[in-house]
Structures are given as C-alpha cells and as structure tokens.
C-alpha cells in the first residue's frame, strides 16, 4: 500500500484538482473510504492507483509489473475508455459502465473501488460548476445509489442519495431540511418517550436488545411525498426505531413483545429474515400505533444483520473467516453480476444495456413461488412472462399461458407477493407485444435478442430470394457465381460473410439489382435484364417481420401485386394499381414483380365501405352477415352521411378475393344496404 501511494504520487505529480488541491489527495481519500469499509490491501492499493491509467501516461502492463494481476485488473476495470471518440456524453457513460460490468464479473472489488471513487467525488462536488454538479448528481441517483442498494451497502446508499438530492434540487433540499428542523423540538421528546417505553418493555420481558431512535432521511421523505403525492404534513411514519439483539430467535420474541405494547398497523408487517431481500438484507419490519396514536416503524434484527445492512457486500471482507466462506450478500452480488453479464451479451449496444440495468436496479421486489415451492424474487410490477424468464430463458421463450394460484390468467397480469405461478410452455416463440408489459431487464433483453435473431434469419432468407430472382433475370444464380466475385464484393462492401450482405438486401438497405450487377462476370456486365411474369417472386403470406402488407391498399391473395423495397423495413407489398407505387413501376431497381403462391394460407385484412339506411340494430345485422361467411371483423367505425344514410367502414380478415366476394355479396343482399365497395387507396 505504501508503494502504491508513492507510485501514485509520482504519476500525478504536477496535476491538481479543480479545487486547487494536489490531485493525489483524491486517490488517497478513495483509499481511506475503502479502509473504513475494512477492504483488503489489494483494493486499497488499486484505489490509490485508480486514475493512473486514465490521467497519466502509464499503462496497465506497468501496474501489473509493479503490483500484480489483481491490482492491475481492478485499476483497468475502473478506468474510463478515454481513447475512443463517442458521439455523445450519454454514449460514453454507457460504454464505460459496460466495460466496468465486464470487469466486475472477474472481480467484484472493481465496483467497490468505483463506488468509493464516486463517494469522494460527491463529497467534493461543490468545486464544480452547477451544470456539472447536476449531471453527476443525476447519474449518482440513477445508477450508483441503486447499485449500492443492490449490494446491500445502506450507509453508502444514504450518503449518495442525500448528497445527490442536495446537488440536484438545492432549494427543495433546504426547504425540507428547514421543515424537519421546525418540528424537531416536539419530535425529540416523543422519540425519547417511545425509546424508553420500548427499552422498559424489553427489560420486563427479559429480552436482550438495544433500542435506537432515528429520523427518516430527507431524500426518503422527498421520495415518499412525490410517489404518494402528499404534503410534508401528511407524512406520518417519520419516526423509526431499530431494535438490535443477539440472535434470530430473540427477534421474533421482541416482535411479540412490541405488538403487545402497541397495536400493529394491519398489512404493514414484513419478514425479511425468513425471505431476505435480493441484496441479502434481513430484518423484521412492523408498523405500530404508539403514544398519541402516532404511527412508528420498527426494525428488529441481530448484530450480524445490522452489519450486513450497513456494509452489504463489503461485510464479506469485514468478517472474512479462515475458510473464506462467502456470506449471503456476496453470493447474491455475484449472481447479480452474472445476470449483468448475460444482459450485456444480449444487448444490441451499450445504451440498450444500461437501460436494462436501470430497470433491474429498482429496489422494490415481490416474492412469488414456483409450483414446487421455491421462492423467486422479481421487480415490482412483474408479470408471468418476467417470472418465466427468471426461471430460465427457454421457459420464457416458449411460454404460451400461465396459472396464478392454479387459475388460468393472462400473461400480462401483474403479480402479487405470495402467489404461486405455473408456466404452460409449448414450441411457441416470444411475442413482440410482451415488450409492452414486461419490467425485468432479463425478460426485456431476451425478447429483444430473440426478435433480432428471428428478424436476421428472415432478412437473410428474403435477401437470398431477392438476389437469386434478380440474378435469374441475367441468366445466373448465386450457386454459379464465381467465389472470387462474391469475395471481392464482400471486401468492397465491408461485410465479413455473405449472410451479412443478404441480410442487408432483405432489410431493404441495399438494392438486389445493384448487387446482382456487381456479381456478374466481367464479360456479362452489359447483358440485358429481362423480368417476365413467370419470374415473379412467390409470396406465401408468412414471410415474417421483413415483409409487410401496405395499409394504404391492403393487398389480399388473388390481387395483382408488386413489392417496394423500403430501407430498414424490408419489402412492402402493394397492389399494382396503388397510387403510392405508380411512380416506381418503370424502375426495376426500386420494385420487384410478385405473385401469390398457389398454396398461400392465412387471413389478410381488407377495408370495405358500406352505405346503409339509418335503422335500429344495423351494426348487429352487418356483423351477423359477415361472421356467417367465416370472416372476422377487426375494426368498425361509422359516420352519418345525411339524416337517412350512414357510412360504415369495416376492416375484415379474409382468406382471398373469392372469400371477400362472398362477404360483399352477403352484405349487399341486406335490405337496407345501398352500396358496398372495397377501399383500395
């Protein structure tokens, strides 16, 4: 540690902080915070060196030579990615956090050094300009305070929140502080009265334990006011007491004693000893009506639980036994980091990853049971889909229905603590609509990852079909194009494999016509392109996400159709007669001749307009006529044309033109119908 200090002092020689102090005072203060947490010597040495790679010319290899692998890895994990240019500050922060998450997976101490670094920065925040203060405070409240909470480090979380709140909302913080002080006089007396009553109660019952009275922190009061939309005067449980005893058995005895002393508030008891929180926190929580019917909150826990609640994962180093057995908090933290790693692998980019992490850092949990009685922790607001992904990714990907407390329920139903959830799975695939209601980062990232993979495979298949169809117009096929031509084109377009190029074509980012021209052998470059109707691409109707049907003209099997290549969306199918594609029909680069496959299946939406005389029950009459032809109504709207006539616009699902003709014929024979026609533009 002494060597690390001298090394850092020399490396930062001549550098100063914005406050004017020598720069080395910062790493020294960070090391001091870690010593207060009783961290090991490697963490403290890494804290002294944590800015050396970032702010001086020294490399990770130089630190490795001097201090070994562990210290070098921690320092590298905490260091920002300074040498890369980012398009925005948000992107830079997201990339840096992603790098740190990967380093945390190897060594959890990386995050502890980072938290200590952030803590000292928050303590010296006043030296910065107001804009920077606000940005750093917002980041601390969004990311670092929840991480400290996730790791069970309560003392650190509270300081982050108090300092962050003060910097982000200085006026609100001052007003609340003044409000708390203004009623502190009465409060002290009440706190002392309740404290002595609780102590006397323990002595009467012969129970060992010390009673601590405390006031709620300003930020937690502010959060409660915002979440519940109440004024400061309406906050009642600002009195909180902690009873710390020697063993778990005594905790439950004390609970019985205090419930005898004061009446408990119904529904406010929580047993976090039997079911610990996700960060390993254990305690009994109860709310009581005390003297003058003032509501108070009491937490009952053992000395070990108290140390764990305050130091969290850092307690692993504080209470290291000879066998080096990790404590519950450490095991849970490692599990959380493993989950982070899984999120990171499946996220499309760093900003998507940080969005998933923020979702996962919400502190409220609910506890539900599997059919076999195992307990699962989920974020508040979770649904059966979140539960399915928490069990296993494959269960989530293939779930089709669920039973909540043995009754069938919608997958989107929000779960409550204590429910038993059973997932019914089959060979189904994730539904994009799930993204509208899932709340856990794991579920969200897995659904997005699956959809991206599915979209990629569909885009590759469509791209191959489009390219082969265009090459056929020149008398070629992908299989008989020389390999050196394909390799040359991939090099020219910066793609590693042919599938990447085909995906780009399928998504409409690259024209199949232009790619085909470049793949032709040199002596065939001037060959004329012929595109007969027999060469039209067959549409099956189930091509997936990279092929869609235009809403302006709603094509259905039997219609003459044409494909328009839309950048990023793939192919959009239009009617040949559609006004929106009239301009591109002469350009073979922008459109593709299409035909319906004879075996096309499925239902397709089509719009019909019915002019009908005003009468009672006309919508029911129309609906009966349409459903009798085995067609479903998707959407219906009405508008008065005049006093006698009404216009009804319907979106109906039909199989093909013949099916549509049957539906229209059935509607036409209704007595009061004046006119029926299909809307094509």
Layout of helices and strands:
Blueprint: H1 2-11, H2 25-36, H3 41-49, H4 52-55, H5 60-67, H6 69-78, H7 89-106, H8 109-123, H9 130-150, H10 154-168, H11 170-182, H12 184-204, E1 210-215, H13 218-228, E2 239-245, H14 248-261, E3 263-264, E4 270-271, E5 284-289, E6 295-302, H15 303-311, H16 315-318, H17 328-346, H18 350-360, E7 365-369, E8 375-379, H19 384-391, H20 393-397, E9 399-404, E10 407-409, E11 421-425, H21 441-473, H22 483-493, H23 498-506, H24 512-519, E12 537-539, E13 547-549, E14 561-566, E15 570-575, E16 591-596, E17 604-613, H25 618-627, E18 632-640, E19 645-654, H26 657-668, E20 673-678
Parallel strand pairs: 2-6, 12-16, 13-15
Antiparallel strand pairs: 1-2, 3-5, 4-5, 5-6, 7-8, 9-10, 9-11, 14-15, 14-16, 17-19, 17-20, 18-19
